[in-house]
């Protein structure tokens, strides 16, 4: 290898080994600092040292299987470590080198296990010798650069290890320093999780090391700063739960041993499984840590997914639940009895159901849990007070929209359970609208048709002939009634076209079900609607409330008569 050393006006060209050249450049850095006015030379030597290492890395990258080159790299790294560990090393020199060497040497970490060990020792040497606050920013910058390396997983290992030590060494403004570093760490971990050959256990060890370090920092603090650091720790743990779960490629059960190790971090901060699945805990945490800092909030894009997954993992394994001293049965009971918290849980489950990267097993458990919390809900549990669900409707609606990706039997099971236990006519209308959309958008196989027919009949009957007896209430339930009639009308037309194409009989179009719908749903409803319209027109002519009620009833009347016509036509064909 040829290189040029410029100490003054003279230039000397020498041929030397890379390790010897690195040793020479390090010696020149040291000597130039001791000379008066040598700072400019020092900077040029540092630049040449970095350039030398970069060139060496490029040569290795071109021939990754060259064992001779690998030996050369190990010699170079070993030489750097020896110089940095020397008792004679000037503090100014090591401080200046700390701005460059952690980043450039981390590139070599993936060449061999020996290289990884040497880079880790080099980073540790800087962490021990330099100002912790300086090293925090240096390592964060190096981590950000490592995201672009060929093997971000291995190259980031010594940097993350060093960062976990730096956290503990910081003496002041711990929370502010951590708040800057944690988003960078999460970005690196997210990138690693997306690698095709990611080792989940290795990824988890990296994440856990940072979490343990943050916990150790919080244990040294008092009062408000401790509370903020703990909240930041919880957000970090919830986010890495999502990152790790997405990286799992084989089976959800492999996530459980990892989650067991994360539970103590959350319980020490007072988080509960109920708070996680309703989103209340994450909302409080984010409010405490982020406030109005939108940029910081974007650093935790999967926080709701992570919170939901922590709960679902507890559902998968009783061992996880025991580790958190939680009884999942009590959580289910609470959600069954509290409609507001139940709606919040619906909104949280959408993050699992809509994720395109999670294993299906996670989604299956989420669906089972959704069915569990809608099971056994009675009207008496919801009628004690009038609860405004308008704040939760967008989240629930978004949750249900993702059901289109779920196989038909599961999808209709969920929708049927939600309609059965809905106490809001507007929410019932949304749910029935989703069933109609599902029928129109899905290309269902013949094997699914019978199940769909059965569910549609059940759902429409729940509204038009309530199980508690009596006719539906008008105009209070106008939204639900109109949606049920629209669903039934659509089903009649949908099944008629399907029957023409496949020549297969339909439950909806069977004589028995048509007669049932005609006599038990449609004719009684026609009488009810006609009487209601007449009564409203009769009472208080021109009164605004009466006119509003008529405006609600007119669309129902139009769709109702269309359904009656269609049923009469189908009955004639029998």
User: Structural class of the helices, strands and pairings?
Assistant: mainly alpha
What fraction of the residues are assigned to beta strands by DSSP? under 5%
Compute the CA-based radius of gyration. Answer: 33 Å
What is the terminal separation in angstroms? 94 Å
Mean of residue pLDDT values? 80
Q: Which stretches are low in confidence, meaning pLDDT under 50 for 5 or more residues running?
A: 1-15, 379-385, 443-448
Helix content: over 70%
Strand order of the largest sheet: 1-2
- Secondary-structure element sequence? EEHHHHHHHHHHHHHHHHHHHHHHHHHHH
Protein name: Aberrant root formation protein
InterPro entries: ARM-type_fold, Glomulin/ALF4, YAP-bd/ALF4/Glomulin
Topology:
Blueprint: E1 2-6, E2 11-15, H1 18-34, H2 39-62, H3 67-85, H4 91-98, H5 101-106, H6 113-129, H7 132-146, H8 152-169, H9 174-193, H10 200-219, H11 223-247, H12 256-267, H13 273-278, H14 280-289, H15 294-297, H16 303-316, H17 318-323, H18 328-337, H19 339-353, H20 360-374, H21 393-401, H22 408-421, H23 425-441, H24 446-464, H25 478-502, H26 511-538, H27 544-573
Antiparallel strand pairs: 1-2
Question: Could you explain the architecture of this structure?
Answer:
This is Aberrant root formation protein. InterPro entries: ARM-type_fold, Glomulin/ALF4, YAP-bd/ALF4/Glomulin. There is one protein chain. The protein has 574 residues and is mainly α. The protein has three domains: 131 residues, Serine Threonine Protein Phosphatase 5, Tetratricopeptide repeat (Alpha Horseshoe), CATH 1.25.40; 207 residues; 120 residues, no CATH class. 74% of the residues lie in helices and 2% in strands. It contains 27 helices and two strands. It has a two-stranded antiparallel ribbon. A hairpin with a 4-residue loop joins strand 1 and strand 2. It is elongated.
């Amino acid at each position: 290898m040829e290189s040029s050393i410029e100490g003054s006006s003279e230039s000397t060209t020498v041929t030397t080994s890379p390790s010897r050249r690195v040793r020479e450049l390090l010696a020149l850095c040291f000597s130039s600092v001791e000379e008066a006015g040598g700072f400019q030379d020092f900077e040029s030597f540092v630049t040449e040292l970095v350039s030398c290492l970069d060139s060496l890395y490029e040569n290795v990258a071109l021939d990754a299987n060259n064992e001779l080159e690998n030996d050369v790299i190990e010699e170079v790294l070993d030489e750097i470590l020896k110089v940095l560990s020397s008792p004679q090393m000037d503090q100014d020199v090591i401080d200046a080198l700390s701005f460059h060497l952690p980043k450039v040497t981390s590139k070599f970490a993936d060449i061999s296990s020996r290289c990884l060990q040497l880079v880790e020792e080099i980073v540790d040497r800087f962490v021990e010798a330099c100002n912790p606050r300086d090293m925090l920013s240096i390592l964060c910058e190096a981590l950000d650069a490592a995201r672009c390396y060929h093997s971000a997983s291995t190259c980031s290992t010594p940097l993350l290890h060093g960062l976990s030590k730096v956290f503990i060494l910081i003496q002041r403004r711990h929370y502010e320093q951590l708040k800057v570093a944690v988003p960078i760490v999460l970005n690196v971990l997210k990138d690693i999780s997306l690698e095709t050959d990611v080792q989940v256990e290795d990824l988890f060890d990296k994440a856990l090391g940072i979490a343990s370090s943050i916990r150790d920092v919080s244990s040294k603090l008092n009062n408000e700063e401790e509370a903020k650091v703990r909240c930041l720790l919880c957000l970090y743990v919830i986010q890495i739960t999502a990152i790790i779960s997405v990286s799992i490629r084989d089976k959800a059960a492999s996530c459980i041993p990892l989650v067991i190790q994360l539970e103590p971090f959350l319980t020490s901060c007072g988080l509960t499984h109920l708070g996680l699945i309703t989103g209340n805990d994450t909302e409080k945490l984010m409010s405490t840590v982020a406030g109005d800092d939108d940029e910081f909030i974007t650093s935790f894009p999967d926080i709701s997914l992570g919170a939901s997954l922590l709960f679902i993992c507890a559902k998968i394994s009783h061992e996880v639940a025991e580790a958190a001293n939680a009884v999942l049965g009590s959580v289910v009971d609470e959600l069954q009895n509290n409609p507001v918290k139940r709606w919040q849980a619906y909104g949280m489950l959408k993050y699992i159901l809509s994720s395109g990267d999670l294993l299906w097993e996670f989604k299956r458990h989420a669906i089972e849990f959704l069915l569990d919390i809608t099971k056994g809900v009675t009207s008496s549990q919801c009628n004690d007070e009038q609860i405004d669900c308008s704040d939760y409707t967008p989240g629930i609606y978004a949750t249900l929209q993702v059901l289109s990706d779920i196989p038909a039997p599961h999808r209709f099971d969920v929708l049927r359970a939600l309609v059965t236990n809905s106490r809001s006519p507007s929410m019932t209308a949304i749910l029935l609208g989703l069933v109609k959309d599902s029928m129109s958008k899905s290309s269902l196989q013949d094997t699914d048709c019978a199940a769909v027919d059965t569910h549609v009949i059940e759902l429409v009957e729940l509204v038009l002939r309530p199980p508690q007896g009596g006719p539906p209430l008008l105009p209070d339930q106008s939204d639900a009634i109109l949606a049920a009639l629209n669903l039934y009308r659509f089903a009649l037309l949908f099944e008629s076209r399907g029957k023409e194409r496949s020549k297969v009989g339909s439950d909806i179009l069977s004589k028995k079900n048509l007669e049932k719908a005609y006599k038990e749903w449609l004719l009684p409803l026609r009488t009810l609607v006609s009487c209601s319209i007449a009564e409203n027109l009769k009472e208080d002519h021109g009164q605004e409330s009466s006119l509003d009620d008529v405006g609600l009833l007119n669309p129902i009347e139009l769709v109702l008569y269309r359904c009656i016509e269609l049923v009469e036509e189908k009955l004639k064909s029998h």
